[in-house]
Amino acid sequence: MSGNKSALVTGATGLLGRQILRAFERSNFTAKGTGLSRADGHSILKLDLGNNAEIQRVIDDVKPQVVVHSAANRFPDKVDKDPEGTRALNVLATRSLAKLCAGRDILLIYISTDYVFSGKPREAPYESDAATGPTNLYGQTKLDGEHAVLEEYDAAGKQGLGLVLRVPVLYGSAEMPSESAVNVLMDVVWKAQEDGAKINMDHWALRYPTNTEDIGRVCHDIAVHYLGRDDRKSLPKILQFSSEDRYTKYEICQVFSEIMGLNIDRIEPNTEGNDPNASVQRPYDCHLSTKTLKSLGIDVSTQDFIGWWRREVRAFRK
Ligand SMILES: NC(=O)c1ccc[n+]([C@@H]2O[C@H](COP(=O)([O-])OP(=O)(O)OC[C@H]3O[C@@H](n4cnc5c(N)ncnc54)[C@H](OP(=O)(O)O)[C@@H]3O)[C@@H](O)[C@H]2O)c1
């Protein structure tokens, strides 16, 4: 069904975009990725999403049937330090891209986050139509990006071609552990081996680490599903994907310590939750329901978190 189709992935030099690009490359799509500082200009095109003319040029050169928009400023602390730059990328550039794609009948999958929800105790799991309520500016800009996509496709009368896919915290193959809020805990476990180390680790917020390769596959499956349907207008516009593996960050450190045979006595579990004076408030539990994806017949199974890490550590040791 996907033969001769073309896909464009923004943020393809990033943790998630890389795997989304691979998923399309592995199937019958001709796939192109874009990046900014890490783009080499050949396998990955350099595209500054702050520049409308550049976006238009790339879209008109690549002529994709589907664009997966993964580029964003997604570090909540960095977002707080650069609200204007973040709005420019997460909201304004998203709107420009959506307008261009809607005008050309291109399917757009906008990658969003579980942080659009407040994550208050006893609210999760959240269905895709549940009330949103971000607790920090990052979540707010991603929610505004969602609205921008849906509004532009509505305005163009192209409902069903502009989609939102919400995902939770990511892990997977990374250039550096610091690319992922989960992978980086491997470094923390190593640091805990140093004499005199004393590390405070959150043991309050519940997280559902989801593998980037699984999300890549789901993006591909969504594209094939929506491109193959004539009745798209009646299909859901907001989709959610998540693993069911649930951990606090401290519990992830425990998993890593077990896999690597390292002691984590120097890591202190912290159950206090948010510091009410901190500028970035993190949600407690934003578990995303995958019911809508399941209703479309899209496979929502995921790799097993512990199994993936066991394989990764074994491969690294070889
Ligand atoms: N990471 C998570 O745990 C997580 C959780 C939930 C949702 N998400 C969402 O998933 C998506 C991907 O996240 P990620 O972790 O893969 O992000 P990432 O690793 O930080 O990658 C960000 C990407 O955006 C590109 N980019 C940054 N500024 C740009 C600009 N002005 N113009 C064009 N491209 C620009 C970067 O290019 P260069 O690096 O080449 O400059 C990079 O490819 C985001 O939409 C994020 O909100 C992430």
From TrEMBL:
Ranges of residues in domain RmlD-like substrate binding: 8-299
Swiss-Prot/TrEMBL GO biological process terms: S-adenosylmethionine biosynthetic process
GO cellular component: methionine adenosyltransferase complex
Descriptive protein name: NAD(P)-binding protein
Pfam family, any one: RmlD_sub_bind
Entry's Gene Ontology molecular function annotations: methionine adenosyltransferase regulator activity
CDD domains xref list: dTDP_HR_like_SDR_e
Organism, scientific name: Coniochaeta ligniaria NRRL 30616
